[in-house]
Design brief:
This protein is 42% helix and 8% strand. The longest helix is centred in the N-terminal third of the chain and has 24 residues. The protein is mainly alpha-helical and 525 residues long. Helix 14 packs antiparallel against helix 19. The termini are far apart. It contains 21 helices and nine strands. The chain has two domains: 166 residues, Serine Threonine Protein Phosphatase 5, Tetratricopeptide repeat (Alpha Horseshoe), CATH 1.25.40; 211 residues, no CATH class. It is globular, with a radius of gyration of 23 Å.
């Protein structure tokens, strides 16, 4: 029986030089024989990133401020990461939660997927391993997708996209110091699409897994596909994939989508249910990270200081927290907490850290991170509908979303009002009347928005602000800032303004020094 090859030397070198001494203790032993479907399945459980991007991305976005009365602290890597990200500097730290750490984590996941795929191919791609093959392809595609959107210039639908992307690793490396080159962004997207479309021919079913939320099921795969085609600008495909997950709502003329409509039934059963979770922070955290939660389509255990970042020196102020009245005239149902030790530092209750002890007195902070949630399917479809000028369809979907996210009072569980909270084009236009006249969409012309009419601009602002609220502290806003050329303003402690404009080179994360040392071209600065 053929034995599993040793792990990618490219990844191994990155980890050795970044100080990760436990790598060979955590990846599959290179003496393991992948002689059963169960062993291959077990291997693929390690093909998901064990780090997340949120610690860095959260600090880079709009709406962040210096915490009042708090001096920078030395000796904590996540403080350095938070400060460098806030000023859009290349990071000093390569520690947990840094760009370097995320790069390494993704390529480690890719290496694992490649070993599984190589063994499946060696066995002749048998039908009984088709689910494992699809899962491994999805893992490989997803990790590359995250990397290319953070460490390379943003994909422009219809553009040349010939800027350096990232290496697309599709084979287990067997030689020392192999040549690694950055393929273009367009080439990386094409490789991702190949893997994605191959996997979607036979997507893994939920019944395949003991805990579906920890794997790429069919519904997670379709939502990933919808995100990929959204970024690629193929909007009809976005609708096709999301409709595999979310029913299409209908609306009575001049009215709302009925409570009994299939789309509303789906949203009620699959959205993160803040209205029923109550206001007890620990209970919300447990519900948000629960593997059995229907909202968690892809939930991954990550080594992360994210939950400690609420005490860092650059924070989310009360003005940036989605609370109070939203566009419907109703109230957001989210629970937010004021950190009394750090002036004007707020966080929305989502994450909880659990400490994994590796010795009796040391260990690793861990966070269950939702890479894909149910809400994304609906929000992706709304964005695609707006791009396709399907305004009525977008408004229907927005009303489905806000039925779950608006209540009549500040009480979290308060009911949605069927009369006053219904969105219409007129209501949306009135809400964004001032913004539409002078918006970044017109100024920086993302997706040709300078030529859009006011209805379309108001709808897109609604979608972007809605996603900003839904995903606060999860890092997703950074991807929208990149794609929609949103400028970011940050004040320093002396009240001086720092601005990150759409053409600023610092919007692209820098390639890790260890990878540059092995021949990869750095991003320009």
């Amino acid at each position: 029986m053929k034995k599993m090859k040793t792990v990618s030397l490219f990844i191994l070198f990155l980890l050795v030089f970044s100080g990760c001494d436990t790598f060979l203790d955590t990846v599959p032993d290179n003496r393991t024989e992948l002689d059963t479907a169960d062993k291959i399945s077990q291997l693929i459980t390690s093909a998901y990133p064990k780090s997340n991007y949120a610690l860095v991305a959260n600090a880079m976005v709009d709406g962040m401020v210096p915490a009042k009365g708090l001096s920078p602290r030395a000796g904590y890597s996540y403080y350095d990461i938070n400060e460098d990200a806030y000023y859009w500097r290349d990071p000093r730290s390569t520690s947990t939660g840094s760009p370097d750490d995320f790069w390494t984590s993704c390529y480690t996941a890719i290496a694992t997927a490649n070993h599984a795929l190589a063994e499946i191919e060696r066995q002749g791609n048998p039908k009984e391993l088709s689910s494992q093959r699809s899962e491994a392809l999805l893992c490989r595609a997803f990790a590359h997708f995250l990397l290319v959107n953070l460490f390379a210039k943003t994909y422009e639908p219809g553009g040349a996209n010939d800027a350096p992307g990232i290496p697309y690793a599709d084979k287990p490396e067997t030689v020392v110091l192999a040549n690694y080159t950055r393929q273009s962004v367009a080439e990386v997207y094409a490789r991702i699409e190949d893997d994605l479309e191959t996997a979607l021919q036979n997507p893994p079913l939920e019944a395949t897994f003991k805990v579906p939320a920890y794997h790429f099921t069919a519904k997670a795969a379709h939502v990933f596909a919808s995100r990929f085609y959204l970024y690629k600008g193929e909007y009809q495909k976005v609708i096709e994939h999301t409709t595999q997950v979310v029913p299409t709502p209908t609306r009575a003329p001049g009215g709302n989508v009925a409570l009994t409509d299939a789309a509303n039934v789906w949203a009620t059963g699959n959205f993160a249910s803040y209205k029923t979770w109550g206001t007890v922070s620990d209970e919300i955290r447990q519900a948000f990270r629960a593997a059995e939660g229907k909202h968690n389509f892809l939930l991954t255990e990550t080594y992360s200081n994210l939950n400690r970042s609420w005490t860092c020196q650059y924070v989310t102020p009360s003005s940036s927290i989605p609370s109070g009245v939203n566009i419907t005239g109703g109230y957001w149902p989210f629970r937010s907490v004021y950190n009394t030790s750090y002036s004007d530092a707020y966080f929305q209750v989502k994450f909880s850290e659990y400490f994994f002890y590796t010795t009796t007195d040391s260990g690793l902070p861990m966070i269950m991170f939702p890479f894909i949630r149910a809400e994304e399917a609906l929000l992706n479809r709304i964005e695609a509908e707006i791009h396709l000028d399907m305004f009525d369809a977008a408004i229907n979907d927005l009303n489905v979303y806000y039925r779950q996210r608006a209540g009549a009072t500040t009480t979290v569980s308060s009911a949605y009002n069927e009369t006053t909270m219904v969105l219409s084009q007129t209501k949306i236009n009135n809400y964004y009347r001032t913004a539409v006249a002078d918006t970044y969409l017109k100024t920086y012309n993302a997706f040709g928005a300078a030529s859009w009419n006011d209805d379309k601009i108001a709808l897109m602002l609604t979608l972007l602000d809605t996603r900003k609220a839904e995903y606060i502290h999860e890092g997703y806003r950074w991807f929208d800032i990149l794609r929609y050329k949103i400028p970011v303003n940050h004040l320093d402690r002396d009240n001086q303004l720092h601005t990150l404009l759409p053409d600023d080179l610092r919007r692209v994360w820098q390639i890790p020094e260890t990878a540059i040392g092995f021949g990869l071209e750095p991003n320009p600065r």
